[in-house]
Amino acid sequence: MPFNTAPDGAQTFYKDWGSGQPVVFSHGWPLTSDAWDVELKLVADHGFRGIAHDRRGHGRSSQTWEGNDMDTYVADLASLIEALDLRDVILVGHSTGGGEVVRYAAQRANGRVAKVFTAGAIPPVMIKSDKNPDGLPKEAFDDIRNGVLKDRSQFYQDLSAAFYGTNREGSQISQGARDDFWRQGMTVGLKAAYDCVAAFSETDFTEDLKALDVPILIAHGDDDQIVPIHDAAYKSVELVKNGELKVFSGAPHGIAGPYQDALDKELLTFIGA
Fold it and tell me: The domain containing residue 69 runs over which residues?
């Protein structure tokens, strides 16, 4: 299995499928690069090079005690892109990964990035504060941390319902998709799963969005129960210079079922397949 060595020595597992212009995928919490397998094959089948990594602490990457924060995640992504000497990169990020790719493109890209595509992404900032009165209260994220600590296996099983919207009438998401969410979540180290809650809820990407100098497509489901669209995509598109908002009616946070089919068509159009 291929690994890249991060600046602090952590080993980052990655998948590298196909050839052509690189499309680099960054996954959400508490998932792994496996969440992008369909899209990796899709872009590779259309003449692109699909690359996705397991964030540190997740999946097959090193479970470090330190470094479970957004700036280190971005440094790991930069290290991988530089090690593979990728140019003209199209970045794709879901949820936490959406924040990761936005910050990388704004702060670390050094001309390597051509476009950014996010889905259900966390920017500009999730947590409620005086500056962000519409955000979610800290208690909501404390509940996530407590769930991870108390019984993460059951917590992930329960969370998958809101993640994929199976608690909505007419949901077409299978039990298998929910089971795979649990499977991936259980590969995440406990420390990483706990620390990443602060990374995805408290990191402020406002200045990163303002600094983006490449086109960005911001995709979001309007029934996202994890990252509410009104406090994320609607605000983000107002901050970027060259952005487009694509709202998927009735879509949940997790990329599966009919939402995945529609999102993947949008992705292929955006990358020029």
Answer: 3-271
Asked if residue 194 lies in contact with residue 203, where contact means CB atoms within 8 angstroms, the answer is no
Global pTM reads 0.98
Could you tell me the two tokens for 226?
């994890």
- What are the catalytic residues? 95, 224, 253
Q: Beta-strand (E) ranges in 38-170?
A: 49-53, 89-94, 113-119
pLDDT tens for residues 59-96? Answer: 999 999 999 999 999 999 999 999 999 999 999 999 99
From residue 192, alpha-carbon distances to 20, 55, 59, 114 in Å are 33, 10, 11, 30
Angle separating helix axes 37-45 and 257-271, nearest 10 degrees: 40
Tell me the Ramachandran region of residue 113: left when phi exceeds 0, alpha when psi lies from -120 to 50, beta otherwise: beta
Which CATH number covers residue 78? 3.40.50.1820
CB-based contacts of 150, cutoff 8 Å, min separation 6:
none
